[in-house]
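Structure ticket #2291
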Amino acid sequence: MSAEPFTYIWAYRVPPEKVDEFRRLYGPEGAWVRLFRQAPGYVETDLYRDRNDGDRYVTIDRWESEEAFENFRARFAEEFERLDRDGEHLTLDETPLGELGPMA
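Resolution: structure written out below.
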C-alpha cells in the first residue's frame, strides 16, 4: 500500500423525506465523520448535493493514505457495519464512484 493521499467517493440517491436524516448521518458533523475521526490518518469528509438533481448526493472521504483507511476498516469493522446498516433505509441506492490517489 502507498503512503500517498487516498480519497474515495460515493453517490447516493436520497428521497426528499429522508434528506434531513441523511445529512445528520453523512454530513460533516455526522455519525460517519465522528467514527472516522477516531482513526489516525483521517483527513476530512465533504458532502455535496447535485445542483441539477436534488435527490443526488456525493460524499468525498479523504485519508492520509490507503493504509490509514485500511487500518481504520480493520479496527472499526463492527462500528462501520452498524452505521452502514443504519443508513440503508435513507437511500434509494448507493454507488461507489471511485478510489482516487494523486496524479503520477
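Closing remark: The chain has one domain: 6-100.
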